[in-house]
Specification:
heterodimer; A: about 375 residues; alpha+beta; OB fold (Dihydrolipoamide Acetyltransferase, E2P); Dihydrolipoamide Transferase; Chloramphenicol Acetyltransferase; 3 domains; seven-stranded mixed sheet; about 25% strand; B: about 100 residues; 4 helices; globular
């Protein structure tokens, strides 16, 4: 059972996508696992042939439990820990199958529908999905309940308890352990906005970019240039990650958020980042995140650009050491050559870990992000 | 079956609702309040609106300039906008143009 985030202790195997004798390549989805963040597609971290499956669907096991064995490799895990966490303990005994909760069939289900089903005690496997590709929607859950003549027994909010607990555990740990410092920098977003407007004007709707893509790329490039913001803080102190995997905080409808990663964001063209972001948001909200996206982010960005706030003071996701916040782009008075003009102003904020960097380095990091946003054509 | 006319407000609305559910599978089409912005009703963000615009572009084959996105913000606005864009005599577009 791979660790899908620092706060994860256990996961429930929902479904195997492989069988004994299956030939598996690195990156193949081998299993679906249910966590507090929803159902995650578990990808293999190595090539091999499956010798045996060690855990049955429906069984909840601790992180580190062997899920499956590959032929000729007695200690190999079909879903091994990602390299970044290779030092984590792996030899935790499997819980007895007798402890298995009711098996939840692997179904594509929206997070809202999953939460509703859980709060109403409805078996998801028994629901007929009417959404695209058979996705079980909120309406399907309620239709099932209505057809059964059952009354909703608990408030829907109860279904959010899992993800709320996961956020609380992670943020609580962050506030206890990480000595945060905060910086803020306001920038004139005119250059980026104009460049984006022109880029989008000459392209059909599906090929256009959202401003978030510029923020992701600018942050990733700055993190690749400045040491101390991309990596993990563990028992041995700070380990810099040369690869910059940018976690993007994505809100779930109805509450809660997750921050899966866009891998190697500093080296991807803007349209690729847009495409991946689009795909990520869709999968987060339909419950199909991949293990390689969870727990792999080396720093995170969070944007409340749609909500009209000037700025936000974010909290670092452990074991990361920095998080960059973006407020809304708002028209504000701005001094230009000794005159006051109205400009679209964007506030960047940084929360970073004092065990790793100081305000001076942090200021340089924020300034690098600003510099990239001032010359968007070079992103 | 003949394709419904895009000028028929009811069938237009039904097609918009189908696209809405495609973009946000957890939205209950029966519960949509036409005058209320999707953002207030369903927590729509800029990515949802972008996906919705992309779906409309794909299904109706029309260009939607970025500055017009705000006219897609609610079911009523969207129906009115598409009604104008498609014109009274435009025949319905076949479901083959559907985008995901």
């Amino acid at each position: 059972m791979p660790s899908l985030g620092a706060d994860m202790e256990a996961g429930t195997l929902v479904e195997w996508r492989i069988d004994k004798g299956s030939r598996v390549k690195r990156g193949d989805v081998v299993a679906l696992v249910d966590t507090e963040k929803g159902v995650i597609d578990i990808e293999s971290f190595e090539d091999g042939v499956v010798e045996s499956l060690s855990v049955k669907p429906g069984v909840r096991v601790p992180v580190g439990t062997t899920l499956a064995l590959f032929e000729g490799e007695p200690v190999a895990h079909a879903a091994a820990l990602p390299p970044a966490r290779a030092g984590a303990p792996v030899a935790i005994p499997t819980m007895p199958p007798a402890a298995a909760p009711s098996v939840e069939r692997a179904r594509r289900i929206s997070p809202a529908a999953r939460a509703r089903a859980a709060s109403l005690g409805v078996d998801v496997a028994a629901i007929h999905g009417t959404g695209p590709q058979g996705v079980v929607t909120l309406a399907d859950v309620e239709a099932t309940v209505a057809a059964a003549g059952a009354k909703p027994a608990a408030p829907a909010a109860a279904g959010r308890a899992g993800i709320r607990n996961a956020i609380a555990a992670s943020m609580g740990r962050s506030k206890r352990e990480i000595p945060h410092y905060y910086l803020q920098l306001a920038l004139d977003f005119q250059a980026a906005a104009s460049w984006l407007e022109e880029f989008n004007r000459v392209r059909p709707v599906p090929e256009r970019l959202l401003p978030a893509v510029l923020l992701i790329k600018a942050t990733a490039r700055a993190a690749a240039e400045k040491d101390g913001f991309s990596g993990f803080y563990g028992a041995g102190g700070f380990a810099r990650s040369q690869a910059v995997h940018v976690g993007v905080a994505i809100a779930l409808r109805g509450g809660g958020l997750v921050a899966p990663a866009i891998l190697d964001a500093d080296r991807k063209p803007l349209p690729t980042i847009m495409h991946e972001l689009q795909d990520l948001v869709a999968r987060v909200r339909s419950g199909h995140m991949r293990s390689s996206e969870i727990g792999t982010a080396t720093l995170t960005i969070t944007s409340l650009g749609d909500e009209g706030v000037d700025l936000l003071l974010p909290i670092i996701y452990p074991p990361q050491v920095a998080i960059v916040g973006f407020g809304s782009v708002l028209e504000r008075p701005w001094a230009v050559d000794g005159r006051v003009e109205v400009r679209p102003v964007l506030n960047l904020t940084l929360a970073a870990d004092h065990r790793v960097t100081d305000g001076r380095l942090g200021a340089q990091f924020l300034a690098r992000i600003r510099d990239w946003l001032m010359k968007p054509a070079e992103l | 079956m003949t394709a419904p006319s895009a000028a028929d407000p009811q069938s237009l609305e039904a097609r918009i609702l189908a696209l809405l559910v495609e973009v946000a599978p957890d939205v209950d089409p029966a519960g949509v309040r036409p005058e209320r912005d999707f953002r207030d009703q369903f927590d729509f963000d800029s990515m949802d609106l972008f996906n919705f615009a992309t779906a409309i572009h794909g299904a109706f084959g029309i260009d939607i300039p970025e500055r017009d996105y705000r006219q897609l913000a609610s079911l009523a606005k969207c129906t009115a906008y598409l009604g104008t864009k498609l014109g009274p005599s435009t025949p319905g577009i076949s479901a083959a143009g559907k985008s995901s």
